[in-house]
Here is the input.
Amino acid sequence: MTVLSVEGLSKTFDMHVLGDTQVVGLDDVSFDVREGEFLAVVGESGSGKSSLLKCLYRTYDPTGGRIVYHGADELADGDAGDGIDLAACDDREVIALRDATIGYTSQFLDEIPRVPAVDVVARPLREQGVPAEDARGEARELLSRLDLPEALWEAYPATFSGGERQRVNLAQALSPRPTLLLLDEPTSALDPETRQAAIDLLREYVGEDTTVVGVFHNTAVIEAVADRVVVLDDGKLQRVVPVADFEGEVVG
Amino acid sequence: MTLLDAEGLRTVYGDGCDRCLDATGDRAGTNQCPHCGSVVACAEADLTVRAGEVLGIVGESGSGKSSLAEQLALERDPDAETDGVVRYAGHEGNLLDVDYETRHDLRTGDIALVHQHIRDGLNPEFTGGGNVAEKLLSAGWRSFEDVRARVRELFEATEIPVDRMDDPTSTYSGGMQRRVQIARALANDPELVVLDEPTTGLDVSVQARVLDMFRRVQREKGVAAVVVSHDLGVVRLLADRTLVMRHGRVVESGLTDRVMEDPHHEYTQTLINSVI
Here is the structure.
């Protein structure tokens, strides 16, 4: 079953501060994502990878095309099976979808200072109504799976190394078990050992009830977790290939 | 559920003339009417707030955000000419037209305002507990024991040391006084809290803790909020949706992360690019 259908997606930025220059982020990109699939997005810097994820999450307003999402048909207005067009639905619908089914995490942890790591990870669960101690229990489990030393669980992530922060970030993204998870380079700062822990955790999560669209730079990670690979070049879709056919290609 | 629905809110300082609206605003590049000299602090502002939602209002000093917030909180400035409609779930008619008593009841119960200046909201000679208790008493609480218990609960929720409850508010740190204001605002379980520049006068480390506390309490209680700030970071932390104001008009609105990362309006782009 298709969980996400991207049809002719385009994004152009009108940069008024740069003398009204237009910058093309995405140009007519189309692909489908199947339920439970792990789709890796690759391309050189500036090829539109992050723009794609941000359009899917509506941090960017798409300027053209449709993004039909079937992961929350119970929230859709139309007939069952029509899905929701993420490119067109209003802000309140986007908020409801984010709360219920769509997760996003960037490369960088963006958190309020002076909140302990375990509470950062537990927060999305608490916001879904999970009791505090259960949420913290789940958070500790995820942090331990990602090999974050127990001594850091009650410490503030602002004092952590890049790799430690990224583990908190990834744990926070996984904790609410979203139906669709958008990951923007969540493993870029991890050392090889920790990266393997992240790969193991991602593999376990995906294929259950979570579909992932993720931007990755590391070929080893892509080969370990992805089912298919979307290759972007200068804002355009170059091709979509099974991960087996992708092997050996140079990732930008 | 829509909690608050505001249309055509306008605040004008001065006599006003029939050319004021055309001659001010974003395109005109000023909020002062060149014909009569009146200042159109805010005009043509429409917005809705749903139950449990947080709406941010950003803009530089003089953009009209506080004038707008004051109207939403039913605060009346006697020096200004105001116009517009504020409808509120469960209440009939335009709340900007209600009599003194109804307005007082709304301000005590459903809608709370946290003032930008701590001295506008608190009596520094009262104890911290007394400042919170005052709000309960005006809502009809009478039992000493019940009031003490409720104040204690609110101190705990807003992370104020309960053993300081009976000390004069003037002996509290700025961060604690801000927490007392928030505790006071939450005292009668309002449906909407309007926060005007919640970080004013607090140093950076205290700011983060107060905002985090507010965000937690806001989510736990499901109370809606309007957060006014010139600080994009404050709005980014708290607000689901954000309005951007300039020269007394709303120039852009949308999901907070969208407004911050994909700003459409020229002014918003400049604002985002000016963050240090």
Chain B has a mean pLDDT of 92. Chain B is about 35% helix and 25% strand.
